[in-house]
Amino acid sequence: MAGQKKLTVVISQHQGKNPVKRQLEEELAMAFMLDPEIEVSIVPNLYDLSHDHSGLLFLQGIQGDVVVLSWLFPRATQWILDRTGVKGKAGTVFLVGEEDEEDEDQDEAEQKNPDAIGTLDVPDRLIYSIDLRASTDAQEFLDEIRRIVDVTSTETVDLMSWIQGEPKKEQLERYLNPQEILGIGNSDTGSVATGSIAEVEAEEKVRRRWYPVIDYDRCTNCMECIDFCLFGVYGVDALDRILVEAQDSCKKGCPACSRVCPENAIVFPQHKTPAIAGSAGEVAGLKIDLSQLFGGGDAVEMAARERDIELVRDGRDAVGMAVGIPKRQADSCGVRDELDDLIDGLDDLDL
Ligand code: SF4
Ligand code: SF4
What we know:
Blueprint: E1 5-12, H1 19-33, E2 38-43, H2 54-61, E3 66-70, H3 74-83, E4 89-90, H4 108-111, E5 126-131, H5 138-151, E6 154-155, H6 159-162, H7 169-176, H8 197-203, E7 213-214, H9 224-228, E8 234-236, E9 242-244, H10 256-260, E10 266-267, H11 274-277, E11 282-283, E12 286-287, H12 290-295, H13 297-313, H14 327-332, H15 338-348
Parallel strand pairs: 1-2, 1-3, 3-5, 4-5
Antiparallel strand pairs: 1-6, 7-10, 8-9, 11-12
The structure holds iron/sulfur cluster (2 copies).
């Protein structure tokens, strides 16, 4: 079945039931439905989707360029998608939140770590990740998507083309009844969902999850995270590349390993600190080198304390700084380091 030229737009819902956020999601979805060039779908919060959730199967089946609107920093969205096999090059987005504004003097290539291992098997298509917190004005999102529609197009494919592998019967049934997995169906084929977003949630519940997401444009495969984590979250693939192997073994609310990673490559998308949640790196309006901030002794000590809390909760012994702390970082604790110099430098600016 030949598809139509269209841009797929996916709205990833907020974790909570905040009515203002829900209203923005619904307002956008309704506007996109009326646009003949846009195929819109709603899925639960991307970060919470389990590997066999229908929403994830749907995302994996999209071919061509796609826009993903979520309540997450774009970097977090990009790497959550990447780990689930939804890969592509990052499309340029002009609508960004204050926390995520890039340094205009620095282009995208310069922001990547030249020693990073990168991701593999990236198809030649673009994924535009947009943070729904970038504006409270729906029109700004509509204008940005219209701009993207004008610079790209994608070919939608029929059901059997996008389902790869062997979906379970119930997953197939959910796809064939789009109102049960998606808030909005395909307006062209008449499968427009009549169910409300609340009904969608009732059909295939997701629970809130907590796990690290690796940014492979920063990760150098140093393995410090796997040494540090004593809960079996990390592993390596067949090519000996670090990966998050057991997502749900991670301890809810704890971001310890993100403080230990020397490349700031570990993202906890729901953490309240923007730099840990995947922002581009603005702290208090000043562009600073986050490796100084996270890599200093204080951060590692804090990480060790956070890890000890979780060990004790599990009935195990606290280990403090005795296990899994790289010598480089252990040595820096308690002595003056570059972070102190940086803070002193900021003080001198008398801001
Ligand atoms: S500590 Fe950071 S840079 Fe090193 S392997 Fe882990 S994620 Fe990658
Ligand atoms: S936050 Fe703690 S439990 Fe989770 S992956 Fe990092 S070190 Fe392991």
